[in-house]
Amino acid sequence: MLKRQYVPLFVTVGLFVLLFAAGSFRYTGFFSLQVLMNLLIDNSFLLIAAVGMTFVIVSGGIDLSVGSMIALTTMISASLLQQGWPPYIVIPLVLSLGILFGTTLGAMIHYFNIQPFIATLAGMFLARGLCYVISINTITIDNAFYTTMAQTKIRLPGNTFVSISVIIALLVVALGIYMAHYTRFGRNTYAVGGNEQSALLMGLPVARTKIMVYGFSGLCSSLAGVVFTFYMLSGYGLHASGMELDVIAAVVIGGTLLTGGVGFVVGTFFGVMIQGVIQTIISFEGTLSSWWTRIVIGVLLLLFILLQKLLGERRLAERS
Amino acid sequence: MIKHRLFWPICVLAGLLLFNLIYSPDFFSIKMRDGHLYGSLIDILNFGSPLILVAIGMTLVIATSGIDLSVGSVVAITGAMACLSISRSVDQNALITVLIAVLAALLLSALLGLWNGLLVAGFGIQPIIATLILMVAGRGIAQLITNGQIITVLSPKYQYIGAGSLFTLPFSIFIVAVMFAAASLLTRKTALGLFIESVGCKPTASRLAGIRSRTVMLAVYMFCGLCAGMAGLILSSNVSSADGNNAGLWYELDAILAVVIGGTSLNGGRFYLTGTLIGALIIQTLTTTIYMVGVPPEITLVVKAVVVLAVCLVQSDKFRRLFRGRGGRGKAGNYPANREVNPHA
């Protein structure tokens, strides 16, 4: 018997398979392992950011600052590298900045009772603005380490390859799954998202969990920024603009409830993959323009929210 | 007097204006040229008018403890729609063409608002999510209408909406004045404002009290869509073109910011239209000031962020308590279980 809580997850996986199959039937050359690998290569940064966002949304919050944080990371990395800083200092530095940024937002949200939406909105403005303070132009990166990271192809059986970013992204997904389901932190996150008041009464460390969740999201978005820097080999204030929405959409399509308490990192993985497949189909179609992606994602978002609503109401009806 | 809710917003606005006065003495000078009034103050009102319109609609939505993230997309869609229908016609300057285009665009914006309202009131989806759908898809739709390009129109009659002037003042100021007066009168001189506030406090309770809470919510989202539509018309007519990609970008955030600065809590149940008006003027004055001082305009975002944070912190009870010392803290506050937990919107 299928557990009801897994239904959205199966719908997501099923939809991904369906979309991929539809693409394979319609376009020659679509059904290949490399197309699948390209989905990972082109969306690795989205995947990393989405893992962090999953935790935030499961905890009942939202983080609008991820896109700007990615841009800020590319900007700081590029400008520091340009001044001759070595990568082994730059990367840890931007990652710790990400943690600091997220933790600060989390602390504000928890201790001052500011809605996550508004606090991270301010964070979004701040990070995007700081990008422009650094420079309003694109800063290109010609650092040897970064170009190696960008160009290295890891050969896989079946004559396919992936980039190093994909390995990082998959590691983050694995870490996310482990953290969500096998650690105390993960259980606390679900508990806080389910009902903060109950979690408090149960004696769970609500403050620490909430702040850590935002810190983790900050870390994920700055790591996504590092991977994005590998991908673009430049820093620019307009990089990843509007990406927070793609990330939120991926998490929702992956079956995570926006009210908090329910969700799977695996679902998020497939949510990102579905967005990637849609983009690939649109680029294979050729005549369809890129803005169809946004419309299709909007429609999918609606369908998944309605599905969750339906399942949620049935669950409530059963309980009462 | 310090207790008055408009005290701090007005102080900020006055402070900004005072800074401008000291920095550049002719800030307040208004000149008459070719029968039009010119000056920085007029500019602030003129360029701020779309934001004020969107913020008025947003105030009412937030009052029902909702939020509308799709306003930026609605701005882009209505601008695109109006410009498309004008550019398709034979005589772009014919009054009937412009009228039809404007009415069609406004109708469309009200329909988009109705869509949001249906999702929120009909299906009971959280407002932030329900409107996120149109926010994501809307910009795609706007680009679909403009076919990914910038549509330019040659129609002085259409341009009048955003760039024309009436009684020596920009015409857009009159649009804002009419909408503001209408919203204030409807909500403060009739029971509608009370209905909206009661729905914002608790939709179920207000329904049991005999208020059609769903109808109220639908109406409020439609009104918000309509306001965004008007802002879209002003913005696109001001530059005589529609850009599906950039028109109204980040308007939702500015509008929410204006509402919050104006003292309306995001938890709903209370709203202050005058506060919103002042909030929007603060944002526009801030932008103008930054341009005038010669700071790179990109830094506006950082300044806005700092303002949002400061306003949120000042609104937060816990933050104020921190500065007021222990005097305000009751005995009950020491037990974790008694701490208030606010579920976010």
From TrEMBL, chain B:
<feature type="transmembrane region" description="Helical">
    <location>
        <begin position="271"/>
        <end position="293"/>
    </location>
</feature>
<keyword id="KW-1003">Cell membrane</keyword>
<keyword id="KW-0812">Transmembrane</keyword>
<feature type="transmembrane region" description="Helical">
    <location>
        <begin position="216"/>
        <end position="235"/>
    </location>
</feature>
<feature type="transmembrane region" description="Helical">
    <location>
        <begin position="6"/>
        <end position="23"/>
    </location>
</feature>
<dbReference type="Pfam" id="PF02653">
    <property type="entry name" value="BPD_transp_2"/>
</dbReference>
<feature type="transmembrane region" description="Helical">
    <location>
        <begin position="94"/>
        <end position="112"/>
    </location>
</feature>
<feature type="transmembrane region" description="Helical">
    <location>
        <begin position="69"/>
        <end position="87"/>
    </location>
</feature>
<dbReference type="InterPro" id="IPR001851">
    <property type="entry name" value="ABC_transp_permease"/>
</dbReference>
<feature type="transmembrane region" description="Helical">
    <location>
        <begin position="247"/>
        <end position="264"/>
    </location>
</feature>
<feature type="transmembrane region" description="Helical">
    <location>
        <begin position="299"/>
        <end position="316"/>
    </location>
</feature>
<protein>
    <submittedName>
        <fullName>Sugar ABC transporter permease</fullName>
    </submittedName>
</protein>
<keyword id="KW-0472">Membrane</keyword>
<feature type="transmembrane region" description="Helical">
    <location>
        <begin position="118"/>
        <end position="137"/>
    </location>
</feature>
<feature type="transmembrane region" description="Helical">
    <location>
        <begin position="167"/>
        <end position="186"/>
    </location>
</feature>
<feature type="transmembrane region" description="Helical">
    <location>
        <begin position="44"/>
        <end position="63"/>
    </location>
</feature>
<keyword id="KW-1133">Transmembrane helix</keyword>
